Amino acid sequence: MIAREFVPSRLEFARKRRGIPRTKLAESVGMNSKTIQRWESGLGEPGEDQVAALAEHLRILPTFFYEPEIEALPDAAVSFRALSKMSASERDAATAAGRLGVEIVRWMESRFKLPDPDVPSLTGWKPELAAEALRERWDLGGGLVRHLVPTCELHGVRILAIASDYRSVDAFSFFDAGTPFAFLNTSKTAERIRFDLAHELGHLVMHGEHECPQGREAEHEANDFASAFLMPRDSLLAAGLFGATVDDVIRAKSKWQVSAMALARRLNALELLTDWGYRSLCVELSKRGFRSREPGSQIPRESSQVLRKILAALRSDSLTPRRIGANFGLPLSEFNSYLAGLVVVSEDGFGEGNATGIHARPSLQVIRGDYKAP
Question: pLDDT tens across 278-331, in order?
Fold first, then answer.
């Protein structure tokens, strides 16, 4: 049964999550925008039929409006990759989606012991040194970080997907009560997803829980951190890529599992390419389609080991993704949007991810607790 206490802030939250103005929502459900405003302000509430109409257009279940209030994420605390490409409504939608993702993760944490956060605060460090320090702390050596998603999860970073509604969002990250979160656009190529995650890791490490991780300088620092973290200086210097040609870069990029453009930029930063050589190389890479794609790449997208194991354990308790989503007032498709590209999801349930070979896997200890059935 639905508790008959409509929560006004949840209507505004659901509307912002979908990036829909009041006027457009009102038009869609055949109401006056002032009526929507009054409901969001707590001056009256919609009837049962109106709740159903609102839920349908906002892609949630009617029960969503009757759950406890959700605390919004402060805009200044969220790092957005390529923020300049986003409108204010797109930013609000993404942060609302991120806040709901936190609620889902916190529910998982109430049932499972997840890896403790191990993301150091290196505020004020140069990106190159910060990347080297994190590699040493995480015992990654000086070569390829073969499974970046599981590696970050092993060290307590909670990783979820960005829904297809927010294609203008490359990635974003933030701390919530000391826990680092990263949201990824998993529709991109494997190389670019890896760089986005390393970029957000740079924000989490260098700009910390109490910094404002936005602005041009912060973005440059996060990019430099990602380059140094994925392509360590000594490893590249030993690769014999001084004065590399386009074909050299295309062949070599798979060794570090990065995009051709990212490798070219790193070579230039390490002065293994002259500025003229770098510009010429970029022009040729663009002609060959490497500006926004990775033609011929066979690098598979990485999977989440943590989410795979959690879903498998919940499935054994007959808690399907549909039931879990309903617990948050979300239909299956909306719940699955937080998992898409990280684990295999389907209408009937889910499959296992395909990332294998990582040496240290996060162990999940089940904490039996009360489950609030939808």
Answer: 999 999 999 999 998 999 888 999 999 999 999 999 998 889 999 999 999 999
* Same domain membership, residue 101 and residue 219: yes
Cα(262)–Cα(122) distance, rounded to whole angstroms? 24
d(CA 49, CA 30): 12
Pair (23, 149) in one structural domain: no
For residues 161 and 137, membership in a common domain is answered with yes
- What is the domain count for the chain? 4
On whether residue 292 sits in a domain, the answer given is no
Global confidence as pTM: 0.89
pLDDT tens by residue, 107-155: 999 999 999 999 999 999 999 999 999 999 999 999 999 899 999 999 9
Q: Is residue 283 part of a domain?
A: yes
Q: What is the pLDDT of residues 54-75, one digit of tens each?
A: 999 999 999 999 999 888 776 6
Distance from C-alpha of 124 to C-alpha of 136, rounded to nearest angstrom = 18
Domain around 42: 8-66
Q: How far apart are CA 82 and CA 258, in angstroms?
A: 18
